[in-house]
Amino acid sequence: MLTSDLNKDTKDKLYSIKNNIDKAIKVSQIIIKSNFDYKHTKQRINLPIYIREYIEDLNISRPNLNFTIDGVFDKYYLINPIEIDIILDNLVSNSIKAKASRIVIAFEKLNDKIQINYFDDGLGMSEKLVHNANSIFELGVRDSSERGSGIGLFDVKKRINNLKGDIIFLGNNLKLKGAAFQITL
Fold first, then answer.
1. Does the pLDDT value for residue 15 go beyond 80?
2. Nearest to residue 82, comparing CAs of 119, 46, 28, 35?
3. What are the phi and psi torsion angles at 168 (to 5°)?
4. 115 closest CA partner among 147, 62, 85, 160
């Protein structure tokens, strides 16, 4: 059964289940990795440094991917790091499904915000989705022959919106030959 065949209530329930599973996995990873106090989910973190360190850890578990981090600077946020982990995991997962071997994350200062540009060298988005870029953030929309639920980018968009930010699809073949996204927080 394809995700597009499911009704909205079923899709919402699937998303809720996935959301809770993702959070549980991330909490357990953080607890194991540090002396994380689960009672205080928001922490003051230097977001570019945190993302760089998270990607360095991902690089160990994903030896077939080459990560590059550019433009790291200090920018502190009061934020739940689990949300950032899940956002990055979803983006990286989509890059892997698109057969990417290289990912570039570039930071830029944007007044009192931060802009995070994410590029991969995968297959990119299909022409159908390139011309309707906002649809890739809808629940159940997929652009891969790989297994998946169509929840990933919907989840990314929802989490970033909850952080008072935004994500847009920039296009294909920008810095690398695959898909490019811009996150503003």
1. no
2. 28
3. -135, 150
4. 160
Higher local confidence (pLDDT), 124 or 36: 124
φ/ψ (deg, to 5) at 34: -145, -175
Q: Quick check: helix, strand or coil at residue 167?
A: strand
Separation CA 137–CA 168 (nearest Å):
9
**How far is 65 from 163, CA to CA, in rounded Å?**
28
Predicted TM-score (pTM) of this structure = 0.77
Looking at the DSSP assignment, which residues form a beta bridge with residue 44? 78
DSSP letters of 82-128?
HHHHHHHHHHHHHHHHTT--EEEEEEEEETTEEEEEEEE-S----HH
What value does the mean pLDDT take over residues 95-116? 95
* Residue given tokens 């570019």 in the structure block: 48
What length does the chain have? Answer: 185
CA 64 – CA 100 distance, rounded (Å): 9
